[in-house]
Write a structure and sequence with these properties.
The complex is a heterodimer. Chain A is built from five helices and three strands, in the order H-H-E-H-H-E-E-H. By secondary structure, chain A is an alpha+beta fold. Chain A has one domain: Arc Repressor Mutant, subunit A (Orthogonal Bundle), CATH 1.10.10.10. A three-stranded antiparallel sheet of chain A has the order 1-3-2. Chain A is elongated, with a radius of gyration of 15 Å. Chain B folds into two domains: about 35-80; about 90-200, no CATH class. Chain B is about 80% helix and about 0% strand. In chain B, helix 6 (about 145-160) runs antiparallel to helix 7 (about 170-205). By secondary structure, chain B is mostly helical. Classes of the chains: A alpha+beta, B mainly alpha. At the A-B interface, helix 2, strand 1, helix 3 and helix 5 of A face helix 1 of B.
Amino acid sequence: MPELPDLNPVIHGKLRLALLSLLTTVEEAEFTWLRARTGSTDGNLGAQLARLEEAGYVAVEKKFVQRKPQTLYRMTEAGRTALTEYVQALKQLLGESINV
Amino acid sequence: MQEETSTQELKDRVALIECMIAEGRRSTESWGWTFLLWGVAYYVAIGWEAMGQRLAIWGGNGLAWPVTMIAAVVVTILIAFRKDNGQPDTTVGRAVVSIWISVGISMLLLFPALSIAGRIDGHGFVAIVGAVLGIANGASGMILRWRMQMACAVVWWITSVAACFGSQAQVTVVFLTALFLCQIAFGAYAMILESRRRQNREAHA
């Protein structure tokens, strides 16, 4: 019997998985856009993004646009690889094809 | 970890990934107004040119196209900057916008040059505009998989071919009809769709 793969615990968190999935579709996204799409609170979103940043899965850029602070998040290559591996592991665990 | 993870939980994760990717890809950009604006601009230029010719007013017909087109470019840029409300760039969005910007630049360079060189007439103008707008609508219709925009591309291609035949008056009627269908009506339709999509999103937020 083939060995079942482990699921990456950093990605497995619901909100973190949602964030990485969202970030695959855009080049970079503002904190407010991510908050609106996930419907999460500022505190929780900030904490989960910090965890993803710590793992090297997202890169953060802070800048000022028209004197307003703007925080932009971008998925890193490591994040993309980790998410791909996570999806592969899910496919293997579920033993069926999934279209993501 | 997999021992603690139930199949249902794994399926939930799959559904979450699918849902978030769909949410991220959903276009939040609204460009219906540009079709409407440019449709109206063309009508204004054509009307101004015709009236100016007849009444010898508003600087004759020489100023109609340059003034209207420059004004439309300025208004487009101003509105586009105002509407840029922090939506992230998507590859699809950038692809579609780049097609239209390139088309716009090509036409803004080509037509004044052809006009100054005296190497264009009404037939040629409509044939080129029809072909170029057919390319732009066709390309973005295929990228967005939007049948209505593909239908606009077909109308422009027909217009382009039709412009090679018939009298100047017939070509003008064909051009005005294509402008109405593919710019004004299509722009209004796109704006209604965008407004409905916004309302749905707000209702589900």
